[in-house]
């Protein structure tokens, strides 16, 4: 069985979630072919062998430099055919998931997104999916010969296998019809740790009382190498940009550690964080519902607790 | 359409519909401005947003803050009652997937409360128990 893995890159670097996708495909067994479509450093792509790829395809077409959903879907569908791949594995992202949907229609594949663990192939091909914003799981049988899987973060542990692999240029032809959407500009934070990729996330809510106090959140995030997030009211009020909004209608995160400061824990916020491995809640209201979803809780004033916690972590390192 | 909840948070219906109709699909769309046969969209990406131009027709999977809520007034609600409601029979399709069962996540253990005067205890727990530091 050949498994094609779409490798997403940002600033020339392969995203960690795509490395997880490679490890997932390698753990499934079979031949793993990685494909990258945007600019990527050669050394980054060569290193993919270490995560289980036995072949790496790189399309360097100028038209694919930016992530156009339709064009990417056409190229991946063609690559599945060229490589005789039965399975396409993609990490969940703002690009990966919509692309997966279109590829599934093109190649008549069974499609599952939010896949959490390796398929059970003892009787057919059954995957476990996260539904209702992580409040339940469903088990879905994928019946078609071709399958497209979109992985939730942490669906597989990253495993180094030590293989070496050469990068093969992959020629593509992109039709004009696939380029009918044009990206005119993009505004992206640089140098920050991206929320969906982060191992640790520090989020602030209305309890922070104003954007001028956010340096307390940022200081803690810095010592932890964490990404910063916020609750919905905070992004609605414009204290923080919308792309930091964690929750049902914002970004759903799945870090090892989630620290929530001054967030009461409305059900819509919990929906975005319930895949976190450990949750720390700091709130001055002992009855805040978030404590029920937390592993560790501190009832206290964020303005006193945060500097102390930042210092304590600094000195513990 | 919305970006995901219609399909159990799969976030794929806009892409499926767009591909089946052979038209562009864009998601998650945060801003939509129509200008004749063209539209200007903003799509959320990791750590920011992307501005796009697209010709009609297209499919948009939308998320906040796409539009202000419009609360219908009583007059509107009453007049809506007289409008014909056409019920369309669903067309069965085979997406090649079959649901086999549901499961609930394991219950969460009790929260460990730590005194704000003893922050060191939290750091120790994060180090030795959670092993995240």
What would you say this structure looks like, in words?
The complex is a heterodimer of chains A (317) and B (133). In chain A, 26% of the residues lie in helices and 26% in strands. Chain A has eight helices and 17 strands. In chain A, strands 7-10-6-1-4-5-11 form a seven-stranded parallel beta sheet, sandwiched between helices. In chain A, helix 7 links the parallel strand 15 and strand 16. Chain A is globular and about 60 Å long. The mean pLDDT of chain A is 93. Chain B is 20% helix and 31% strand. Chain B starts with 12 loop residues before the first helix and ends in a 5-residue tail after the last helix. The interface between A and B is large, with 91 and 66 residues.
Could you name the key traits of this structure?
heterodimer, A: 317 residues, alpha/beta, 7-stranded parallel β-sheet, 5-stranded parallel β-sheet, 8 helices, 17 strands, 26% strand, B: 133 residues, alpha+beta, 4-stranded mixed β-sheet, 3 helices, 31% strand
**String of helices and strands of chain B:** HEEEEHEEH
Which pair of chains has the greatest number of interface residues, and how are they split between the two chains? A-B, 91 and 66 residues
**Count of separate DSSP helical elements of chain B:** 3
Major sheet: arrangement of strands of chain A? 7-10-6-1-4-5-11
Structural class of chain B: alpha+beta
- The outline of chain A comes out as globular
> Regions of chain A with pLDDT < 50 over 5+ consecutive residues?
none
Mean pLDDT of chain A: 93
Please give the oligomerization state of what you see: heterodimer
Largest sheet of chain A: 7 strands, parallel
């Amino acid at each position: 069985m050949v498994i094609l893995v779409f490798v997403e890159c940002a600033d020339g670097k392969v995203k960690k979630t795509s490395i997880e996708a490679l490890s997932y495909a390698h753990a499934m067994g079979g031949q793993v072919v990685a494909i990258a479509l945007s600019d990527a450093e050669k050394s980054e792509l060569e290193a993919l062998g270490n995560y289980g790829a036995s072949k790496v395809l790189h399309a360097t077409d100028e038209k694919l430099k930016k992530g156009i959903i339709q064009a990417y879907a056409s190229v991946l569908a063609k690559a599945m055919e060229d490589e005789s791949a039965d399975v396409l594995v993609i990490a969940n992202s703002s690009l990966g998931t919509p692309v997966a949907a279109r590829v599934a229609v093109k190649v008549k594949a069974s499609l599952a997104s939010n896949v959490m663990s390796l398929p059970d192939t003892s009787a057919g091909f059954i995957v476990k999916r996260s539904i209702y914003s992580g409040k339940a799981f469903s088990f879905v049988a994928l019946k078609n010969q071709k399958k497209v899987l979109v992985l939730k973060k942490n669906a597989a542990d990253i495993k180094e296998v030590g293989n070496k692999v050469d990068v093969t240029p992959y020629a593509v032809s992109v039709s004009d019809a696939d380029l009918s959407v044009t990206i005119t500009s993009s505004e992206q934070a640089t140098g920050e740790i991206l929320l969906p990729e982060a191992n640790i996330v520090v989020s602030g809510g209305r309890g922070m009382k104003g954007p001028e106090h956010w340096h307390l959140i940022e200081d803690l995030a810095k010592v932890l190498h964490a990404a910063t997030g916020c609750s919905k009211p905070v992004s609605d009020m414009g204290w923080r940009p919308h792309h930091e909004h964690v929750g049902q209608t914002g970004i759903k995160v799945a870090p090892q550690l989630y620290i929530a400061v001054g967030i009461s824990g409305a059900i819509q916020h919990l929906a975005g964080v319930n895949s976190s491995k450990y949750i720390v809640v700091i709130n001055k209201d002992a009855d805040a519902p978030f404590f029920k979803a937390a592993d560790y809780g501190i009832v206290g004033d964020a303005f006193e607790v945060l500097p102390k916690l930042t210092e304590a972590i600094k000195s513990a390192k | 359409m919305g970006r995901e909840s219609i399909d159990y948070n799969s976030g794929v219906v806009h892409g499926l519909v767009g591909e089946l109709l052979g038209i562009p699909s864009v998601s998650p769309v945060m801003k939509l401005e129509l200008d004749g046969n063209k539209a200007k969209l903003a799509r959320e990406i990791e750590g920011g947003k992307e501005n796009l131009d697209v010709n009609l027709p297209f499919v948009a999977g939308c998320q906040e803050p796409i539009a202000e809520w419009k609360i219908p007034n009583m007059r509107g609600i009453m007049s809506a009652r007289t409008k014909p409601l056409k019920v369309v029979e669903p067309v069965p399709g085979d997406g090649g997937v079959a649901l086999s069962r549901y499961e609930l996540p394991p219950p969460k253990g009790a929260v460990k409360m730590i005194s704000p005067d003893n922050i060191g205890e939290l750091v120790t727990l994060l180090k030795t128990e959670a092993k995240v530091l």
